[in-house]
Structure prediction request, 474 residues.
Amino acid sequence: MSIRTRFAPSPTGFLHIGGARTALYNWAWTRRHGGTFVLRIEDTDRARSTAESEAAIVDGLRWLGMDWDEGLSRQSERGDLHRAAIETLLARDRAYRCVCTPDQIEARKQQVTATGAKWTYDGRCAEAAHGPACGPHTVRLRVPKDGRLGWEDLVFGPSGQDAREIGDMVIRRSDGSPLYHLAVVVDDVDMKITHVIRGADHLNNTPFQIALYRALDAPLPQFAHVPLIVGADGRKLSKRRDPVSVQHFREAGYLPEALCNWLVRIGWSHGDQELFSLDEIRALFSLEAAHRSSGQADPQKLDWINQAWIKQLPVGRLVAELQPFLAAVTDPGAAAAATGDAGLPGLVDLLRERSKTLAEMAARARFFALPDDALDYDAKAVQKHWKPALRAPLAALRDALAALPAWEPAGVEAAFEGVLAQHEGLGRGPLAQAVRIAVTGSAASPGIYETLAVLGRDRTAARLARALAAWPAG
RNA sequence: GCUCCCAUCGUCUAGCGGUCUAGGACGUGGCCCUCUCAAGGCCAAAACACGGGUUCGAUUCCCGUUGGGAGCACCA
Prediction:
């Protein structure tokens, strides 16, 4: 039997990292085993579901590098199937109509829970045999009163609950709409899903869903529950407290490779390996190696992983990824110009060692994208490093650079050395800092020779001239 | 409260009875390198929650305790 899996998010917000990881596990495992992976939007809650959210989920998954088969299906478009399944259940007496109102149930529930016992539906309508014309009613599944609703979880091992813990759950609202559990099970059966890989928060839902499979006379799929990703406080991720949306990380300058790498390692490991490409994830991911305990998402580890990817990705890819971030710290025109500049790849190569995110790289590359006459100087750096006495050496350097036959790091360094030799007592550091600020506006940049080499002869000259013109007098 | 689940450094984890004076990674501290910022190299501090068993022998198996989490809807 061929493997079929699905990722079934509800479109009630952005794709969040917990869902992204569940999708990643599904995707990787399915691809590894040559199965079919489908995406099903669980939009039965019409009030909370939005088209924007669905688009965000689709975009997020694509951006991360995942693909799926057989298009995209929406649960809302399968209502007929759900309704028919409920009718079948009713006809076979595996379910019954219940006329208890929410208020009545609430009152009875209060009585039971007051004694400390656990409430499950008391079965008042179970034997009443209400017909279709019984007035406003819900439909409840007949859940066995004894026995066990168990399964062999691919991650958690033997799992289950005693059937009596569950109670007869509602599968159709009084307005005729089916509930989530019914829809999920009917869809999974209909789509011939063989392996349900989902978050451990569904562990408690599984027994009831198993009862549903049995009532439907459908074969049980294999279940694999993966541990939750929790926030720094150890609790379930909260949109309020934690940065959770994939979009957020994308906008903060994290690469999809890094995000996948980070997420796959929370709850799964492969020996001591830390870095995994999407191809490696697809080749190596196994449910046997998945963990059972929940894990925290450590943003500092993400930073490190992101930089690791920044360090090894092809420069052309980084240049392209960098553009929007460059535009954000300058303007679209400057960013486009910089992206077309032959010197940018060289700068990116210098910056990969010092950038944890694309946003940070853009901030460090800003000086390059800015027009020469628009560069702003860091006031504190100027105060500290632009000493009047450095004016003459700087002018000498300007001349030495202008006389350089070839514009490359070694030549620039030679020019520096020449100026240093001419000026007794002048240190390499002070001169480098003065130039660095003149050319980048900041006291921190890649090596000064490499920086000038990448900036180019003309732009360096323009910036030195501008700095000299603004130089503090003794 | 009830049901279910989990438990190795601060965090992610290796470990699937002896190889553990418990390994790696992030982070942290120190040193080196150095024109700044990084990157890199070296070193260091840092964990088997507790108590019972089982066993010749438990981080590894079992049971409790404690701690944490999830679920208890006519939400998904």
Remarks:
- The longest helix of chain A spans residues 17-32.
